[in-house]
Amino acid sequence: MSSAARIAVIAPLRIGVSRLSAAAAARESVSSIRLDSPATDASWSADGLFLAVAYVNPISDAVHIFNVVDGVVVETVPVTIFESVPSASRVSFLSFGPRRSSRFLYLACGRSIIIWDRKSGKIAYRFTGSSESITAVAMNVDETNLAVGSKSGGMVVYSLKTNTPTHLQSRLTQ
Known about the structure:
InterPro entries: WD40/YVTN_repeat-like_dom_sf, WD40_repeat_dom_sf. By secondary structure, the chain is mainly beta. It has strands at residues 4-11, 14-21, 26-34, 39-44, 50-55, 62-67, 72-77, 91-96, 104-109, 112-117, 122-127, 134-139, 145-150, 155-159, 164-168.
């Protein structure tokens, strides 16, 4: 495998995937993915082969996982998983787990987070009850802690091992 990095550039209705090579200081276009609606977020799989994209559709929101080599949708996360989510409006943030298997996809929707198991095609876990809209989601390297940011600037770290939240405090005020 080469020492090149891939970058996704998201325009309103298109995603351009390019390979960047520091050694050659060159950019090579890999694929271009046409979307039916504007994207709200995108995330690379750990191996760099797949790109998950959440986008707004006039009928319903959608999350597709594309093979970046040919730009083909290889998986669709069913929109129906969000129907039972309180205050669901659209998938605002998504992230693959950092492990190379990229088995789990973390999705924020309204005031809830869903952990989608790509292998089983089912919800692995659901976090609900946030008092505010979720604005950021990040998973630690060994996938044991999930950090969640909210509209007011609050940050909560959920332990997936002990199923407990830790509210982070900041001296900074907004």
